Amino acid sequence: MSAQPLLTVKDLRKHFPIRGGLFGRPVGSVKAVDGVSFSIERGETLGLVGESGCGKSTTGMMVLRLLEASGGEIWFDGQDVTKYNKRELRQFRRHAQIIFQDPYASLNPRMAVGDIIAEPMMLHNLAKGAERTKRVAELMQMVGLNKYYADRYPHEFSGGQRQRIGIARALAVQPKLIVCDEPVSALDVSIQSQILNLLVELQEQMGLTYLFIAHGLNVVKHISDRIGVMYLGKMVEMADGDELITNPLHPYTKTLLSAIPIPKPGAVKNRIILQGDVPSPANPPSGCRFHTRCPQCQEVCKVEEPEFRKIGSRFIACHLVE
């Protein structure tokens, strides 16, 4: 791997204003992402997991500048993406793509599949005429679709096939980084494994780098080199995938792992059931944000926010771990 990571995120924040009163003045903010830092090496997959509303998809959108960050830095290939002008941002779009969660909503229903896949190449002037048509056929075959389906429309395909179309579209500009925003959560379980295997194969063939966002560790563990766990806008633990699965240290990570079902009839698992609801990101708890639901909460957790620091080979934000 290169000495310089492909992507480095430093203290990334996104605060959405809350407006009220007659004149709609700001009265507060929703801290969707509040100080997240990580890096991804070239050819690596970083999995990002957490409950709905923890800020993982917002993080992915900010990395691509589909959402503007409230603060922090995003370094891609040695350059600060947050300082790009329109021309530079257009060039960046070629090297960083996204696969969306909903494979149907992300495809234009009025465009044929071949045109959907060809559109990024047209926008970036990468291929024309017969060359573009040939490239579309190659991409369709690469993701497991018959090239003769290029004249069909999205509604004529299944959910798994639509997601393959979305993957082909992302690959059309030969990107370095792909943000996979829960790409299998809307698919049947039997199809999920096919899409995950396809992503792994494409990564090996093309040297791709993934930021893979998902709800459950059971999905992320099969594709990720490292895994980061988010809770209420904060990163609470990050470690090598196998290490995090076999030896979780943060109480929240342990809770997520306990929710993974055992594929064995009659098997009994010790589930950790959290009490209470997830706090509002508009009014997060003091100290550790997880302390209101943590079964191991101490007094220090309520008043002092833990630093996201390196302990051994992992990063973790917890007062209980030395």
Q: What report would you give on this structure?
A:
The chain is α/β, with parallel strands linked by helices and 322 residues long. It has a single domain (7-316), classed as Rossmann fold, CATH 3.40.50. The protein is 30% helix and 24% strand. It has ten helices and twelve strands. The strands form two sheets. The protein has an eight-stranded mixed beta sheet with strand order 6-7-8-3-9-10-12-11, with helices on both faces. It has a four-stranded antiparallel beta sheet with strand order 2-1-4-5. Helix 3 (113-123) crosses helix 4 (129-142). The chain is globular and about 70 Å long. It starts with 6 loop residues before the first strand and ends in a 6-residue tail after the last strand. The mean pLDDT is 92.
Describe this structure in a few short sentences.
The protein is of the alpha/beta class.
Summary tags:
single chain; 322 residues; alpha/beta; Rossmann fold; eight-stranded mixed beta sheet; four-stranded antiparallel beta sheet; 10 helices; 12 strands; 30% helix
